[in-house]
């Protein structure tokens, strides 16, 4: 018999009669709707926090201390002196008489442009961005859920925006978590990437119909969905967010239908290059000239939407935790990537070689795995082992777990949207540091790629 000092584990001595009395009636399909509706009410309650009078998310203000520490590299005294000398510049606002000045991000961007034009040329006021090159598309992917995929993509997008880049976020996950973070409103699949994919397929059918007519055959009619999609472009599905330099193509549950529709289209037109649909749609719409960076948040599965996101991407980031299961799963993810894209290349190149055409070869500027939610007290040895096997593929920077992300998540926000006054300032600085370092590692990769392309362009022009 167990003593009070050593009680039995809780799974002993469960009374079946009491357990039976605690049961609810058997669940039916209709009960799922009630649960979903309860979740929707809770989600609306959480999402409503921090909204403005129009019911939209509002980005917080930034203090002089934050601006001069993180955004514009000048001394605080010099920053104040420049504002005093230039009354036409944004002057900020004080919450108390003689208190600290606070600025919107839009005002910060104007101030940064002024310092770039008038300030020291030795300082980096504007981020490096070669002229004449298209935006870089960055896919964040892993078919294992819970690895910090959406959080990583969202915080990189916010970091890049704070750095001064123009950012587009594309949510391919029908769960719509990224859309929620950026306050997006998506009524149905027609406000997602779906019409862009449908348009791409419809354009292919049109080209095939022209060939059919030339051969004296009857064209294949386009259904209402494809006809409507032909009227749309990327600009029709891009929406503004509460960040002045981050736009969004959102997602919602109906987007999952694309996973079933795309293979149906492909069966009807084997020549349709479905993997090119998203990349072509963004390029065709001039999106890659409008933005500097496009972050693509993919579903936690290697389906047709993920294949589109990966094929469109220039850079692939794969977040994972420092654990055996996540390391093992991520290895299988890379194996599946190889199988998928190699099989596409093989199938396409049989015809290409027969017709004397250029062969298909997928290429990414860089591929990096990134350790997220890292706990140095327990995971250092595992992370070192992963580094030894993955080498340069695994970023040496490890994104530490921080309580800041949990608190921000309760408010459907990123840590850059959290007001540091809600924390001890040093706690905020330490918590923010891990995300700043994640962005620094990514930015180093990005700038190296852009510089390589600049050099290649100059050599080609010589």
Uncertain stretches: none
Radius of gyration: 26 Å
Structural class by helix and strand composition: alpha/beta
Count of distinct strands: 11
Write down the CATH class of the largest domain: Alpha Beta
Q: Count up the domains.
A: 2
Main β-sheet description = 8 strands, mixed
Distance between the termini: 88 Å
What is the annotated CATH architecture of the largest domain? 3-Layer(aba) Sandwich
Overall mean pLDDT: 89
Query: What global shape is seen?
Result: globular
> Given the structure, what is the number of helices?
18
CATH homology-level superfamily of the largest domain: P-loop containing nucleotide triphosphate hydrolases
Give keywords.
alpha/beta, 2 domains, 8-stranded mixed sheet, Cellulose biosynthesis protein BcsQ, P-loop_NTPase, AAA_dom, Rossmann fold, 11 strands, DNA_Partitioning_ATPase, globular
